[in-house]
């Protein structure tokens, strides 16, 4: 009779009708037990309520607009920005945001968009208290977003009959694409300015020509905006605190408030501090672009809406004024009020500024459109090359590689990038085109076509390149003029990775592109954005660890892992190492891997503060293994990643066993004055020698025969022979290794090695008995010889 399986209670459980949600730690399981009859009834109920839901949203949109045009626009925008800042207090990771936090974060952009498309009725000054109207606007917008979240399902059911397919995966994508409209923040704050600098610097002459602005001016202004919108309120309070301290130092006898005011007015330093605080905290100084930047008038004018200037947001035929349709703020992130230009919304500036500038310039200078596209492609490739050179120091990169489709160079295909590092080859296709910004409710097909162009096409292109590289023992690649640039031997590479790297960030789909069936991905291509590659370049200090992660990331494309964020892959890697195995062991296919990127978000959120001492989030690696990997990373050992990957593949327990084996061997050899071989059998097959000063070396052939005998006896597919060299202080200073397979066993030595295998096995059994004080070994215990079999089925016989 088998053992009774232990029941593990969930941390959380929720049930609503046929739907169940269960949480175990960071794993969230979704289960749908609905019957066909229940499903049909639910669909009919949803379909019958569609018109009512549209009416509710239209009514809310109308109410909100009527309230907004009653308000002083500047006061309302300041209020909305303060709400946004308050919603982020204590939040370091996106996963910590509640639904209410998300909705509050979207208030500001909707209010600014409504103002851009409406002429305010109110002529009141900024100081008039309209807080009761502001609160009502907030409440209405909260209702609007809440109703819309459910409306996505009503819309999908209502339009299902007109869709090109009833495929559940297609319908699921439609819902996810609509939900993605709520996502903001393409990259971490510490990367914003660098990202824009890398992309716009090649266009410096055109920026100067069209806008009379330099790249340096643009970047300085954006830095000031970033500082003001994220930390301006806090800095204003610090000014007030300093003003009060300074006032205490300078004050004399004060009879009343009038005396205090006179002291401030008569003291230039106090007066300036008072005025700065009043302008920033009570006025709009934190948002005034003329104060924050020295940008030209023409630049500000082209990137700003005047009040009521956008004349089509509320007049469109479908869903007029809805916040999920392209809002005016997407096209122009700034707003002009009383002849002054202001910036309030952080995310819409930094998420969209590059594409906004691109569209504005190419609209004003049509002849530059093609040139912009070409420069953009080259700039994106250059960014990726620099990031890989940081991740893999010393790597070789080939850019813009041409190769014949047939036997002639007259017809060639192009590959964007080849990255060579040790025995690793990375084939990269770069996609610098823009992802569609059309609402999926208006044109879901444009979203599918974008993904097909930016991901699926790259998948087939990398496969075509790989096929060419495998077509002969050695192949040549050429430059655009068909001049040979390199010869590549595919057999030099044990690990080949195909990648698609996009300029635009559509993270929620790229992270699981292989699971989107309509893309028909045929290969294990890893799809990520430049933003995520930039994050990885900061997270990984070791090329060996990065390549090991990249291997796990590739394996995840073939497993049940389906994530909504690229950095969840890294979070899973930190927690579970070979995480695709963890996923495939799960019973359910519908798992939400919740909160795995939280440590990463927290680290980068605090990185903007240079005074904080932060610990980089990474996988825990024991000291001895880290010592080996650090040595390998700085060495020129051929195929060194074979050893690093082998060690990093080990489980936590096996890693610790490996480190203990090193430490115990070093101690024991000092005591016995004799060199020994430490071996492991089973899933991780290795034989390890720890070389120390003043010890007699084991002959190289003896160690090799020892390993080959183990391969022969245990029918192993391979065994790693590792030589570690330590100085008198047990510090590692050199490494050598060899991967042996059955093919390395000479036929004439099989009998000798079989005899040695028996002798070594008996020796291990005797040693095991001696070390454990045993007279005999239990029948059902594992045989100490290393075969992996029970003793009764091995050497007991």
UniProtKB/TrEMBL annotation:
Protein name, as recorded: SEC-C domain-containing protein
Database matches in InterPro entries: SEC_C_motif
Source species of the chain: Paenibacillus oralis
Top-level taxon: Bacteria
Xref: Pfam families: SEC-C (PF02810)
SUPFAM superfamilies assigned: Sec-C motif (SSF103642)
């Amino acid at each position: 009779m088998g053992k009774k399986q232990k029941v593990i209670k969930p941390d959380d459980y929720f049930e609503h009708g046929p739907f169940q949600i269960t949480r175990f730690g960071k794993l969230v399981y979704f289960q749908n037990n609905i019957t066909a009859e229940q499903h049909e009834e639910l669909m009919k109920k949803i379909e019958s309520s569609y018109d009512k839901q549209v009416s509710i949203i239209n009514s809310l949109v109308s109410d909100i607009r009527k309230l907004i045009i009653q308000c002083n626009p500047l006061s309302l925008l300041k209020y909305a920005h303060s709400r946004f800042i308050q919603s982020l207090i204590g939040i370091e990771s996106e996963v910590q945001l509640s639904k209410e936090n998300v909705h509050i974060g979207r208030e500001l952009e909707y209010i600014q968009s409504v103002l851009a498309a409406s002429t305010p009725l109110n002529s009141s000054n900024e100081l008039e208290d309209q807080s009761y109207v502001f609160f009502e606007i907030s409440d209405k917008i909260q209702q609007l977003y809440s109703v819309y979240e459910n409306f996505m399902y009503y819309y999908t059911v209502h339009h299902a009959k007109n869709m090109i397919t009833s495929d559940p995966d297609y319908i699921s994508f439609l819902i996810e694409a609509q939900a993605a409209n709520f996502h903001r923040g393409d990259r971490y704050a510490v990367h914003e300015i660098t990202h824009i600098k890398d992309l716009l610097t090649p266009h410096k002459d055109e920026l100067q020509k069209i806008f009379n602005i330099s790249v340096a001016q643009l970047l300085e202004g954006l830095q000031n905006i970033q500082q003001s919108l994220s930390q301006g309120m806090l800095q204003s309070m610090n000014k007030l605190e300093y003003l009060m301290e300074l006032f205490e130092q300078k004050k004399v006898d004060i009879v009343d408030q009038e005396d205090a005011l006179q002291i401030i007015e008569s003291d230039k330093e106090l007066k300036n501090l008072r005025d700065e605080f009043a302008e920033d905290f009570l006025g709009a100084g934190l948002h005034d672009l003329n104060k924050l930047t020295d940008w030209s008038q023409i630049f500000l004018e082209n990137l700003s809406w005047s009040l009521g200037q956008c004349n089509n947001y509320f007049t469109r035929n479908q869903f007029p004024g809805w916040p999920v349709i392209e809002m005016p703020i997407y096209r122009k992130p700034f707003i002009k009020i009383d002849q002054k230009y202001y910036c309030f919304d952080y995310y819409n500036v930094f998420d969209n500024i590059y594409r906004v500038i691109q569209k504005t310039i190419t609209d004003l200078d049509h002849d530059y459109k093609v040139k912009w596209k070409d420069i953009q492609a080259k700039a994106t490739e250059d960014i990726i090359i620099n990031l890989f050179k940081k991740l893999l120091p010393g790597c070789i990169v080939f850019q813009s590689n041409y190769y014949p489709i047939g036997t002639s160079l007259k017809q060639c295909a192009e590959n964007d990038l080849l990255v060579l590092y040790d025995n690793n080859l990375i084939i990269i296709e770069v996609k610098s085109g823009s992802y569609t910004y059309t609402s999926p409710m208006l044109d879901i097909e444009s979203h599918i076509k974008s993904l097909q162009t930016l991901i699926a096409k790259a998948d087939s292109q990398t496969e075509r390149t790989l096929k060419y590289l495998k077509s002969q023992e050695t192949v040549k690649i050429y430059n655009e003029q068909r001049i040979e640039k390199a010869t590549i031997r595919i057999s030099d590479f044990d690990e080949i990775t195909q990648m698609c790297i996009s300029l635009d960030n559509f993270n929620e789909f790229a992270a699981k592109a292989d699971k989107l069936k309509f893309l028909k991905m045929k290969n294990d291509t890893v799809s990520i954005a430049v933003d995520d590659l930039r994050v990885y370049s900061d997270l990984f200090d070791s090329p060996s660890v990065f390549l090991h992660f990249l291997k796990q990331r590739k394996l995840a494309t073939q497993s049940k892992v389906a994530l909504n964020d690229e950095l969840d892959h890294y979070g899973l890697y930190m927690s579970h190492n070979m995480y695709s195995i963890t996923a495939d062991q799960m019973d359910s296919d519908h798992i939400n891997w919740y909160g795995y990127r939280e440590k990463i978000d927290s680290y980068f959120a605090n990185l903007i503060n240079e005074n904080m001492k932060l610990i980089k989030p990474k996988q825990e690696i024991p000291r001895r293994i880290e010592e080996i990997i650090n040595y390998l990373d700085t060495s020129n050992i051929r195929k060194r990643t074979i050893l690093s990957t082998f060690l990093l593949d080990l489980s936590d327990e096996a890693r610790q066993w490996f480190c203990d084996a090193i430490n115990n061997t070093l101690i024991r050899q000092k005591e016995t004055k004799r060199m020994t071989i430490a071996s492991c059998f089973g899933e991780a097959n290795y034989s390890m020698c720890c070389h120390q000063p003043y010890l007699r070396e084991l002959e190289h052939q003896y160690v090799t025969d020892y390993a080959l005998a183990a391969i022969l006896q245990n029918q192993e597919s391979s065994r790693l022979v590792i030589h570690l060299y330590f100085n008198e202080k047990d510090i590692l200073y050199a490494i050598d290794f060899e991967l042996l397979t059955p093919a390395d066993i000479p036929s004439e030595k099989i009998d000798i090695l079989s005899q040695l295998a028996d002798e070594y096995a008996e020796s291990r059994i005797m040693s095991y008995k001696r070390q454990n004080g045993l007279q005999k070994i239990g029948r059902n215990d594992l045989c100490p010889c290393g075969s992996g079999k029970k003793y009764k089925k091995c050497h007991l016989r």
